[in-house]
């Protein structure tokens, strides 16, 4: 919780700031593009600002945009956001021993503020949870230094993107930049043969089932892809953990 | 909902914020330790890539609810260029820029 002055005064906070600073440029650019994509896809400025300030998760925001524009029912948007965010569920299992000494509301705030890069730098710097109060304080401060840089870069540049978007004509099709960013994210997830297959099968199913009402093609695509991968795993005797490098 | 604010959308946005909290805190919301059933652990391997691919595929190969029947569509080449860039150099920003560098000339120049 970087808004707490007590945490900001600890020396490890500055170390966290320093380590995250080089990454801020990339996070800011991704935020800028997300801001532009939200408005250029047809969301209002109020909606885009609310999404930026509240959701704080780039890939689930970008995935939600086309669904919101198409008027998909809330549960489909939320279920899609949940699936896109599943990597955080894995991170949370890893972070649990680092956070359990905190009261619940602080765990929840801390978890909410810990995005991909903060998690990655934090667990690289501290491979094991501290077992002394001083060690825990230092770890908390380091993590929050990184979270602070990430939050400022993301929020600042997203809002700049929302503001700039109105200066750019709709006909340029800049909303497509959001889709291209998701192309990169899908490629980064497709690290095993079965994951590649999962993405391809889901793509084909989503297109083939497009006529389904309520954007259920997305749900159908996830279901078909996951079940097919389960079946192939068993059939070919593959071990997903051994195949996995993520 | 083109450029207009509606309460339903704002409510869904609030729901997405709750989804961010739920997923980022998943295993430390409760005090006692617990695990996922085995099938859910396995689904974690495939569901994220499937969800994103399912969202973007129609955005790349469909117009007005129909599969496009022409190769003259800037989105196809932009997505291919983006993916090629990703496997060459990695990085979300570069992928987006490479894709847009292909998309904008085709879309604005040739009207694809």
Structure, explained:
The complex is a heterodimer of chains A (246) and B (112). Chain A contains 13 helices and no strands. Chain A starts with a helix and ends with a helix. Chain A is an all-alpha fold and 246 residues long. In chain A, α2 (11-40) packs antiparallel against α8 (116-125) and α3 runs antiparallel to α9. Chain B is mainly α and 112 residues long. Chain B is built from four helices and two strands. Chain B has helices at residues 7-25, 38-61, 74-89, 92-109; strands spanning 62-63, 66-67. Chain B has a two-stranded antiparallel sheet with strand order 1-2. In chain B, β1 (62-63) and β2 form a beta hairpin. Chain B starts with 6 loop residues before the first helix and ends with a helix. The chains are: A mainly alpha (246), B mainly alpha (112).
Mean pLDDT of chain B: 89
What is the CA-atom radius of gyration of chain A, in angstroms?
A: 20 Å
Structural class of the helices, strands and pairings of chain B? mainly alpha
Cα radius of gyration of chain B in angstroms = 19 Å
Helix-strand makeup class of chain A: mainly alpha
Shape call of chain B: extended
Report helical residue fraction of chain B.
Answer: 55-70%
Task: Estimate the helix proportion of chain A, in percent.
Answer: over 70%
Order of the strands making up the biggest sheet of chain B: 1-2
